[in-house]
Amino acid sequence: MKKFxxxxxxxxxxxxxxxxxQQNIREVAAKLKSHESLDLIQIDKALVDYKRDSLSMxxxxxxxxxxxxxIFGLNALGVLARNTSRYQESIRLHLQALRLSEEIKxxxxxxxxxxxxxxxxxxxxxxxxxxxxxxxxxxxAEKVKVKSESILRNTAVSLNSIGNIYLTLxxxxxxxxxxxxxxxxxxxxxxxxxxxxxxxxxxIIKEAQNKLDEALVSYRLSLDYNNQIDSxxxxxxxxxxxxxILIKQNKPKEGLKRILPTIAEAEKLGDKYYITMAKINxxxxxxxxxxxxxxxxxxxxGLQMAVANNFNSSASEAYSHLAFLYESLGExxxxxxxLKKKQLFSEKILxxxxxxxxxxxxxxxDNEKKESQITLLExxxxxxxxxxxxxxxxxIFAGILLLLLGGLLLIWYRKYQLNNEKKVLMLEQQMMxxxxxxxxxxxxxxxxxxxxxNNEKENAVYYLNKFSKLIRxxxxxxxxxxxxxxxxxxxxELYINIESIRFSEKINYEVIIEESINTQxxxxxxxxxxxxxxxxxxxxxxxxxxxxxxxxxxSSKVKGSISFEIVDNGIGRQKAQEIKENKVSKQKSIGLxxxxxxxxxxAKNINKEIVMEFEDMFDKNNEPLGTKAIIVIPxx
Length: 636
Prior knowledge:
Mean pLDDT: 80
Order of helices and strands: HHHHHHHHHHHHHHHHHHHEHEEHEEHHEE
Low-confidence stretches: 1-21, 584-588
Radius of gyration: 53 Å
CATH superfamily of the domain at 436-580 and 589-634: Histidine kinase-like ATPase, C-terminal domain
Number of helices: 23
Distance between the termini: 96 Å
Largest sheet: 5 strands, mixed
Shape: rod-shaped
CATH topology of the domain at 436-580 and 589-634: Heat Shock Protein 90
CATH class of the domain at 436-580 and 589-634: Alpha Beta
Structural class: alpha+beta
Strand content: 5-15%
Oligomer: single chain
């Protein structure tokens, strides 16, 4: 029962920790999302306490509205899978991160994801694929003009990984070139971890080339940086590397002092590869120092781990050192047996080296092929660039020509507009002069004067009010190109009233408007009806004996237009012409001609026809009944 309760408590604490982690990672993600721009360095710093927690990274990788965070989470999960030897799962996660990075077109994430894929394939000894991914990452990084810290770090990682691939293939010169390039970037960034790794790799090259003093310098520099950042694993690797060099320089005591403490440190980390390495190196040093029991113990323990974990090169080394140990003890059968076993593992390694050599040939072939393709592409690029330059020149010339033509057309159009505006202004001025007819003004003022002389004050004041209101309306409307139909009819009513007073005879005036017509919305040119009404009064009604009628019918018979019919019961156009011919003083009327020009100008952009017609009306005996003026204007 106690055990069961303890289990429940543990389970409860696990769930509470899990819930707390979920809440925390979501809060951090929410804060990160609020930033306008984020790079991988900023995200890495913010998530440094969470990136080794698979649950937190899984939550982060599923936050749909935070794509850069999802990518980081997927790559972090990929690294965790790689560190636990689940390489296919690691590749799947990194590929998912790469696809998402390409969707959002984030170069930093694309480069980082490609590097992660390269590392996973390198662990699987897929040399070609690893090299392809790292070179692809490097190619994209090199094309970026303004390089962020994240891109520079990824460039260093690409170079370092490519160097490691060449190191595996024992292409030491090529490897060294990549490590030096990576080292220079890490110096610029002051990245101590990167510096430690590159100096360690350079030491391995120097040791392989038997340049032990140079190797020792590189290993010590690496150790110094690992001490500064307190990297436990880094310190274990460096101490073993320095110890190996000291043993090779016939300083086994100094070497042992470096190596022996790293066994316990490696055991704390649980890294079997470095436990194996430390035990074999300790056994080697102890054999030279003739502490055979301790040497045998360490070598056998290291060998057991090497065989169990398929560390073939470590197993070969252990058998070689055991053969030396038993030879020193005079146990020659055991020495021979260990030499034979060493030979077996050496053959395995040799086969691996043959495979690496084959891979090296493939890599060389691929590189040469890619270089030839790059050269060909560069030449094609030069041709395309030349053609583009030629096309640019043609486009620039064509553009200048089009601008000139456009400028000329604009000048011509502006000139046309100015001429048109000038013409319209002249028409308006002429119409104004026509409307403010001197005879009309003179006769109106004479009428007012006669009222005053005859002491008809009320008539004089009434006439003067009507006259001043008409003049004010005409002046006000002359400022506007268009007025409402209602305003036009009000002005015409004033005009007819004054003309009635002048003739001392009442003109029966009536306006009949179709119900569907809204006089406040329809716009027409100002004083457009005045010339027709003036004609009707002066040539038709002024010489008429008896009742005088003037009617205006307004309708919308034609769609999109408004029709005016100005009907008078005057003497008719024939008799009016005869009276005009008999007059000594003949005045030339220009009102209707100006009106026609104004209406044509008003309708030119509407694409509708203007109608101006006069119709004589007769009775059964063919006697004149009056005149009908018909005007059809497009509606605005």
